[in-house]
């Protein structure tokens, strides 16, 4: 438990960022590792955050004309093999189902029944292009069936040896959009549209500023013609790729035979896209906003906006306090903010007030309210905001409190975004020679380096070899992102080779 | 396409019920089989129905204090083995992950990498008692941590050889509740509460009347002390088990070491429950309400409540018709019914009106509206209800139409329930001797037979051997279900042995 002089989370970000992250996840009760290698348990507070992400994203997908559907968990090996680059990208890290029965073994325990071997191994989906492609090839017959705009909410598995809760786990939850179009232009437009949806969601809901744009060839999704991503900066100045949108050309349509009859009665392969985002977003929220006292959640996605609890002094006026809290909570729940009623947790557990306070601090609830006998007598409520220091409190009159709390939540949502944007911009720098780049990453703590690059894989590889950094994206419209953005579009000379470069790219270490 | 004299679905229910079911699923575009053995693809219209089921159930679970969480897809073999009856129940039908990598084979294709064999096989969850139990054993330390009320929305896999869309598939979607309690009484109360939630959902939302009560020992969930179920009657008079709630006693707590310190500082095993319902509910909706023209969906769960389309006569007043439709659709969407805005599909596709009409009939949209030039001129709308014959239409004045359509939807919801209840009651009969029971199942089409039973497994087995029928449940409070219910509670003599029977039970063939 934190004392005056200490922080609630130990180590602090400055002391050990990676361990701080794990401790925040634990202290906020978001998730935990499981006895199953690489798989996490998402606990109620973490899952509620994911549900809020899901609900809002789902609304955005539906508003852009997409419909949800559900496809099999298993992909026959032969399906995965249909697109050569694709299978090469996933073969090394997939869970393979080979049998369909256990029987009693000679020792009494259960063993895999050798008689129940599958004719063809099934891969637990790492992504669903090939199995959805099989369905699309049936659904798409004529240009009238296009565009086909589908999304799936599902679990996927990519076998990972080194895992980190939310950021990299063998099983994770995600959504994957899959669309088919009659023309290249329309498919490209869809790819861009969904990239924009992700960017809007990240900024307006997660309060997490992002750069968006195409990845380089080496960072493309296996089988894609072009991959776009949104990239955010975490508080350790590393980049987090938080959503990707792929233009798949006709690669997967050819692999899965997604063909349609045109108006002119010719036959053509469809143009497809896919786009995904995952429980990794929860990791992004944690690392963008939280501090050394624990989780901070943007109010717009918070599992609860407000926690209220009583502080009793003996039995003095106990009943009155409880009534006061309950009528206040009811009034707060009648407030609609961002299209849903405020979520209020009334915490009546019989534990010490200090313990309770710190628990809600660590869980990141935006507004905390303690009600004691003096509050009741004075007709006030004592309010603490999670974006201020834990001991900073404000007295509001009971009558004005609901409206003011609403305003506090809106202010906090804006403030978290502005703080994160400032942090990102403060740690984004134009770097013009290779020695400065070395200093930037090795001595000065890194961040987003804006450098000129000649477009070759060789120059790109040097960033990785020398600094473990990669080109995160070729940011679109950077001039709208920040003051430094305008100069990103000026031509220059590659920081590695001195060859001409049409514009700057973003180089950073990443998750 | 249906003609006057023909039905839209062939065969009809009377001709071949099982095939009629498949054809309704196909004609309504709800789901299809996939190239992966036993796994289905849930198409947008079917998935939207499932989403509506999920949303409403989830609300009911949360209102009764449950929180959602997420646990691993994989269960280590040793976990499944912890509860002996449990593993015996699932070992024969489980998908086993044995390897975590594919490599290039000698022939060029990919093969399972023998070097990447898992130390312990992982079972794709058929249900999650054991893996959730492992988490609960950590989460529960003190009586203060109880009750622990968790729900999970997930996919599960039970290897099936004979599958039927929604009713029996190897992979299906479901929710599984898992709770832990300090006392037996509280756990039993929870088991009953969730059974009641399922019954309320089935009747109030699905418009599907159910009987509820304990199953006999032979029909219990593997490892449970007692299993309760809701049972509905389909139009072929077979029973559908549509949700189960299990009192697990301390069996799983002992297997998973879920122990807590009591107020008295002793240590005790917790009392646990689990309860589940699945995409099988979609099958229940289809088989309860649909007719020989296709799907009928209760309006409260319908993916869309209303479909509207124009009927043009050449170019005459085209623009006016489109405007009329759009303003009318806007007005309908402003109506809130059962807590959400009406969903309106405006169908502007360039296909023949007759084809369009039949498509919406087959998809089961509750209200269909065609707008032609005469409707616009007369200021009326022509409305057809899915619970009437396809050609029955009503003219409503434009001004009154929104309120009347709302009333039609409410009336349809009630009417579907009443019709289903009457069907069930008409096909429920007290049967008092074994020859009559034989006649009931073999000659008279079967249904729910209310018979006296002596409580032995031997007598129960005879129903299965002789009629492929089982005891569906020992209905609770049958006197509230129907007129015949009151007499169910009178004692009598077992229909098999003549031994004393305290009350009647429900015997039926089932899915």
Automatic annotation (TrEMBL), chains A, B:
Residues 46-298 form the Aminoacyl-transfer RNA synthetases class-II family profile domain. GO terms for molecular function: proline-tRNA ligase activity. Pfam families: HGTP_anticodon, ProRS-C_1, tRNA-synt_2b. It is found in: Cytoplasm. Keywords: Aminoacyl-tRNA synthetase, ATP-binding, Cytoplasm, Ligase, Nucleotide-binding, Protein biosynthesis. PROSITE patterns: AA_TRNA_LIGASE_II. It catalyses: tRNA(Pro) + L-proline + ATP = L-prolyl-tRNA(Pro) + AMP + diphosphate. CDD domains: ProRS_core_arch_euk. Gene3D superfamilies: Anticodon-binding domain, Bira Bifunctional Protein, Domain 2, C-terminal domain of ProRS. The keyword Nucleus does not apply. It comes from the Bacteria. Its EC number is 6.1.1.15. Its main location: cytoplasm. Belongs to the class-II aminoacyl-tRNA synthetase family. ProS type 3 subfamily. Consists of three domains: the N-terminal catalytic domain, the anticodon-binding domain and the C-terminal extension. Homodimer. Catalyzes the attachment of proline to tRNA(Pro) in a two-step reaction: proline is first activated by ATP to form Pro-AMP and then transferred to the acceptor end of tRNA(Pro). This is Proline--tRNA ligase. It comes from Pendulispora albinea. The gene is proS.
């Amino acid at each position: 438990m934190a004392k005056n002089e200490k922080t609630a989370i130990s180590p602090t970000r400055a002391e050990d960022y990676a361990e701080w992250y794990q401790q925040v996840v634990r202290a906020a009760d978001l998730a935990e590792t499981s006895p199953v290698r690489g798989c996490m348990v998402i606990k109620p507070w973490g899952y509620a955050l994911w549900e809020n992400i899901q609900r809002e994203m789902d609304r955005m997908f539906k508003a852009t004309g997409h419909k949800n559907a559900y496809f099999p968990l298993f992909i026959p090996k032969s399906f995965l093999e249909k697109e050569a680059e694709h299978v090469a990208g996933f073969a090394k890290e997939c869970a393979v189902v080979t049998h369909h029965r256990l029987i009693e073994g000679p020792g009494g325990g259960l063993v895999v029944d050798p008689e129940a071997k599958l004719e063809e191994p099934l891969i637990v989906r790492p992504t669903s292009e090939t199995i959805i492609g099989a369905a699309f090839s049936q659904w798409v017959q004529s240009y009238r069936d296009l565009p086909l705009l589908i999304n799936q909410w599902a679990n996927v598995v990519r076998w990972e040896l080194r895992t980190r809760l939310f950021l990299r786990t063998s099983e994770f939850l995600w959504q994957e959009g899959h669309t088919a179009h009659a023309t290249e232009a329309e498919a490209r437009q869809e790819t861009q549209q969904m990239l924009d949806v992700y960017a809007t969601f990240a900024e307006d809901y997660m309060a997490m500023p992002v750069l968006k744009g195409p990845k380089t060839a080496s960072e493309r999704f296996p089988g894609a013609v072009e991959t776009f991503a949104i990239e955010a900066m975490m508080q350790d100045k590393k980049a987090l790729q938080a959503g990707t949108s792929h233009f798949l050309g006709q690669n997967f349509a050819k692999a899965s035979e997604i063909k349609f009859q045109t108006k002119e009665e010719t036959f053509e392969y469809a143009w497809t896209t896919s786009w995904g985002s995952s429980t990794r977003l929860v990791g992004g929220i944690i690392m963008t906003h939280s501090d050394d006292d624990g989780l901070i959640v943007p109010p717009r996605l918070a599992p609860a906006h407000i926690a209220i609890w009583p502080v009793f002094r003996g039995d003095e006026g106990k009943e009155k306090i409880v009534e006061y809290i309950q009528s206040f909570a009811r009034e707060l729940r009648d407030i609609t903010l961002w299209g849903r009623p405020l979520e209020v947790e009334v915490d009546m557990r019989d534990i010490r007030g200090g313990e309770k306070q710190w628990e809600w601090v660590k869980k990141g609830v935006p507004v905390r309210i303690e009600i004691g006998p003096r509050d009741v007598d004075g007709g006030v409520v004592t309010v603490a905001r999670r974006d201020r220091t834990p001991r900073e409190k404000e007295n509001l009159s009971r009558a004005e409190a609901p409206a003011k709390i609403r305003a506090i939540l809106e202010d906090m949502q804006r403030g978290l975004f502005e703080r994160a944007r400032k942090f990102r911009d403060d740690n984004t720098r134009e770097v013009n020679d290779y020695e400065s780049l070395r200093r930037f990453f090795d001595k000065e703590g890194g961040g987003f380096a804006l450098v000129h690059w000649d477009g070759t894989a060789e120059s790109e590889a040097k960033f990785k070899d020398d600094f473990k950094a990669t080109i995160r994206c070729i940011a679109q419209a950077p001039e709208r992102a920040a003051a430094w953005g305008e100069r990103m579009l000026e031509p220059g000379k590659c920081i590695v080779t001195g060859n001409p470069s049409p514009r700057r790219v973003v180089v950073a270490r990443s998750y």
